[in-house]
Amino acid sequence: MSVEAVAAPAEVGPLRLRDHATRGVAWALVVMCAVLLGTILVAGERPTSYAELRAAVADGRVDEIRVEGGLSGQVQGAAGVTVHWRDGLMGRVTSVTESTSRRDARLAGMTTPVLDGRVDDKLSELDPGLRSTRSSDWSAYNQIGPWRVPQWTSAASVVFYLGVLGLLVGGPKPWRATRWAWFWLLGSVPLVGALAFLLLGGSTSVLPPARPERRLTGGWAFLLTVVVATII
């Protein structure tokens, strides 16, 4: 009678201190990413065109605007203006030039759409009930992808991206894609790509891949980023 040898299951050793540290940093970055994404949804503004603003006012989707800069009093010349408004739940912003003459705007080298007079007066012609407030102060902002967000997010963004890049370069071999592939994805869709790396790349050790041997390479990831860039 023969006896079949049964292989004993391999014992999984305890996680090393470095593994715990990597997971802790990764989850902290996930929380930071959630805060930045929430800030975009609540206080972010998507740049758009003046033509879209006019269409929104004419359709009655905008009942209030906030204007920064521009001409004041009896000042002659040309001045840049930033207009803020909300279209539904989404914040919007656009830039135009207020001028007392087209020649003044050309001499000033303005590149934004030029209006004869004040932007709030022009928009009130489309909707007399439009409310507007004007300020001579310019609000500072940070840019995350195409979004304008409050200035305080600048420091948080730097810490966040340095942390993600640190995990990408110095952390364990990432899942689902090579380091170069994740690098291109991080650059094309910054916050979404970073969140995908943290949750799907193995740093947090959640959602392990069914086939670890299959990984997206840098070349294919670069082509994917080109396609994404044309879409967004």
Report what the structure shows.
This protein is of the alpha/beta class. It has 2 domains: 17-42 and 145-231, no CATH class; 48-139, Signal recognition particle alu RNA binding heterodimer, srp9/1, CATH 3.30.720. The chain contains 8 helices and 8 strands, in the order H-E-H-E-E-E-H-E-H-E-E-E-H-H-H-H. The chain has helices spanning 17-43, 50-58, 102-108, 119-126, 153-170, 179-188, 190-200, 218-231; strands at 45-47, 64-69, 78-87, 90-99, 114-116, 131-135, 141-144, 147-150. The strands form 2 sheets. Strands 1, 2, 3, 4, 5 and 6 form a 6-stranded mixed β-sheet that branches. Strands 7-8 form a two-stranded antiparallel sheet. Helix 1 runs antiparallel to helix 5 (153-170), helix 1 (17-43) runs antiparallel to helix 7 and helix 6 runs parallel beside helix 8 (218-231). The longest helix is centred in the first third of the chain and has 27 residues, at 17-43. It starts with 16 loop residues before the first helix and ends with a helix. Mean pLDDT is 84; it is low at 1-14.
Helix content: 40-55%
Oligomer: single chain
Mean pLDDT, rounded to whole units? Answer: 84
What would you call the structural class? alpha/beta
Instruction: Determine Rg (CA atoms, Å).
Output: 26 Å
Written as H for each helix and E for each strand, in order along the chain, the element string is HEHEEEHEHEEEHHHH
Distance between the termini: 69 Å
Tertiary shape: elongated
Number of separate helices: 8
Catalogue the unreliable spans: 1-14
Major sheet characteristics: 6 strands, mixed
Quickly count the domains. Answer: 2
Number of strands: 8
Q: Which percent range describes the beta-strand content?
A: 15-25%
